[in-house]
Amino acid sequence: MPTSTYSELRAQLATLTTEAFRPELAEIDRLSTLEIARTMNGEDRTVPDAVARELPAIAAAIDATAERMARGGRLIYLGAGTAGRLGVLDASECPPTFNTAPSRVVGLIAGGPTAMVKAVEGAEDSKELAVEDLTALGLTENDTVVGISASGRTPYAVGAVEHARAHGALTIGLSCNADSALAAAAEHGIEVVPGPELLTGSTRLKAGTAQKLVLNMISTITMIRLGKTYGNLMVDVRASNEKLQARSRRIVALATGAPDEQIEAALTAADGEVKNAILMILADLDAPAAARRLTVSQGHLRAALHATEPTA
Q1: Where's the SIS domain (predicted)?
Q2: Options 19, 43, 54, 124, the catalytic residue
């Protein structure tokens, strides 16, 4: 890279809050371990307040995302480095938590799967790579693309949002600096600004925590809007191991208050589907009738419970 380009990038980074140097922490390495831990803990306490300031923007983005997903669209996260890893993490947790198909919530990281554990040099600097990754997915107008970048300037994230918006997809830009290129490129800009880091420019710290909190909201509340929960119970949980099988039975018990024998019978008849089993017990339905009513209610258990139309 030419020296002039390095100078330009250096000047650009100097304007970012996430890259700001904090003179008051210049001798943090001389503190005791406990003092450093207390300092870090104090820094982390400021992150929820930074997120709170963006709640209206976050809520608007979630409502728009849920609307697209209800039409069959996907939720697609893209980012580089820590931001990309957080997106992949959030996407990977949706199938076991909400019984979504792996293709419904997707995490893409600049440089591909290798970049999850090892830096792929130059990948984050390529808008073209983002376009290639989205093209490979067969992007549609019903999809939601979330570009994630602490700096708000990462070309991979900005390029993804620009391409997706130009092709009619819903776009969200999540950054940790104000007036970012990423937020400006997106239909829904979310700028959570937790301030300069404990270690200058180490955005895996407060910025990473802020991004994780927002991604938790985007996926969780979207799934609530899509009927993946009943109250605060994960009624679409996929029982893929012994712990989740036990949790499934506990969820049915909490929702219905039914005895173990009735719970086992309902889950067996419903082929392990928690939502169906709850409906069978609470509405006194057999498995086929419960499945039909849930189909009519588009998977919303509360709506199915209050339905008055015939189930056949």
Answers
A1: 65-228
A2: 124
